[in-house]
Amino acid sequence: MATPKRQILVCQSFRAAGDKKGICHKQTDGFLQYLEEEIIDRGLNCLVTATTCLKQCESGPIMVVQPENWWFKGVDSHEAIDAILDSMEDGTPALQYRIA
Ligand code: FES
């Protein structure tokens, strides 16, 4: 199986030790499934990965698109996910959610 062209990191607030902390996992219920379904529907060659805290809690929920290294903040709705996926298809980051 070929390796994916891109990877979307979705902060799920995991900690190396102890319980989840931070806001990302509290505001992204159902997002992983929605993201996976949208990626399939759009035919994107992209892997979704749930991560530990990405150390941007004050701006969460956080998603990162690699290899572009686009960091997005406030990804708390399907509309935000759609905007980010649209931006991946367009080749330019969704500026309204981008961490500068
Ligand atoms: S919990 Fe998501 S950045 Fe810290």
Summarize the structure.
The protein is an alpha+beta fold and 100 residues long. 25% of the residues lie in helices and 23% in strands. It has helices spanning 31-42, 78-90; strands at residues 6-14, 46-52, 63-66, 70-72.
Which range best describes the helical content: under 10%, 10-25%, 25-40%, 40-55%, 55-70% or over 70%? Answer: 25-40%
Fourth CATH level, the homologous superfamily: Glutaredoxin
Overall pLDDT level:
94
**What is the name of the CATH class?**
Alpha Beta
Total of domains: 1
* Strand coverage percent: 15-25%
Query: Alpha-carbon distance between the termini?
Result: 35 Å
Radius of gyration: 13 Å
Corresponding CATH architecture: 3-Layer(aba) Sandwich
Spatially, the strands of the biggest sheet line up as 2-1-3-4
Sketch the topology as an H/E string, one letter per element: EHEEEH
* Approximate shape: globular
Number of strands: 4
- Structural class based on helices, strands and sheet pairing: alpha+beta
**Can you tell me the residue ranges where pLDDT is under 50 for at least 5 consecutive residues?**
none
Bound molecules: FE2/S2 (inorganic) cluster
Largest sheet, in brief, is: 4 strands, mixed
According to CATH, the fold-level topology is Glutaredoxin
Work out the helix count.
2
